[in-house]
Design a protein that fits this description.
heterodimer, A: mainly alpha, 6 helices, B: 6-stranded antiparallel barrel, 6-stranded antiparallel β-barrel, 2 helices
Amino acid sequence: MKALAVFIAIALALGLQTTLARFVVGGSAAVDLVLVAVVAVALTIGPVGGMLAGSAAGLIQDALSSGVIGIGGLAKTIVGFLAGAFGQQFIVTAALPRLVIFVAATVLHGAVFMGLYYVLDLRAFPSPWKPLAAQALGNALVGIVAFGIIESLPGIVERRRSRRGRR
Amino acid sequence: MALLDIRQRTGWLFGAIVVSHIILISAQVTTKRGVPVLQEVTFGAFAEMQRGATSAFGSAREGWQNYFALQEIRRENDQLKQEVTKLRVSLEQERSVAQQTRTLQQLLDLRSATSFETAAAMVIGSGADPEFRTITIDKGTQDGLRPDMAVISPAGIVGRILMPTARAAKVQLIIDRDAAAGVLIERSRVNGVVEGLGSGEELGFKAGMISLNYVPSSADVKPGDRVVTSGIDGIYPKGVPVGEIQSVERPGGEWRIRVKPAVDFAALEAVLVVLKAPDPPSETADDGKR
């Protein structure tokens, strides 16, 4: 059940990411929905689920993009693992800790992703900090909203069921 | 089953996934030289392994060879030590022979310098009793030695023949408490008689000293004066060095003169025995206690 939920979350994130990317000026999204999904999965399930989800989602994302397959996967694996481990050790149910985790996860992901491209001399990132900061903020906001929606979903469903039952 | 449960092996799983990604990336990326990173990294890693293995093997081989070399060196060291010991013994023997040769040369010189007939003899032993200062020489009556013959060395008088046997003779040293000889002080030509002091311990003197007695009260005696045989005792030829005056005292008006012998009796190796005593001088003299 968990695996299915993870699969759906990742697929949804990928679908939205590839769909929304077209509407962003310059072609580069300020929000990485796949990363948001991976962090959310990691915080919900744990480090193993986080890294598996990150690995799979990253590889798919790499395959769909024109980059080197594996770099995004590696970055998301690391982020998923660490976010999951962090979520296991600390209570991150409040909005602020989550915001911090999303920001940190985005920065780490960007560092690994751009760092690997830079080290392998495949691509240059002239001024990476500004877009990275924007993406971190965007990811954090989207992540908190998404978490709020996901957590309120069971309650909404329950209320609708009970309403139907009264009718 | 716990081994197969990946949730129990999170670290390993994480490592495996990371490595898989790195391999995947490496397979796609080429270096500046145009070689795939995977190939280069694999080759590099394998080359390092080969280097490490070769180095380890080389070290092991070198260690093994060194071990054997060490064994060989130890054996050689033992041999060399033995050789050094032998050579040291040999060197000491050579030195001893050289010293003996020098002594004999000195004796030969003395022999040719003196006008009287002499026989060279080697010291083969010393006295058994420290109270009696004697030595044993390797010449005896067969060689013409007789009692009371003077025994001298290049440095000075040694003593007299006390008891000759056929092939050896006992020599009474001048430092023996019963030995005496007629002497004169070279500088002032004052006559006297030297007598041995034996161990000298009971008298408070250093062992090996001799005492100069029967010196006239008006005599001119100073420390440092050389004392030679006067020849008036009929044993020792005239003019042979006896020693040097070490101290001069006159407690109660009586001379107390100590003479340091010219001969180092401890290092005596060869001597000359005066076979034919010089003609005694006409003047009479005390020939000592003998």
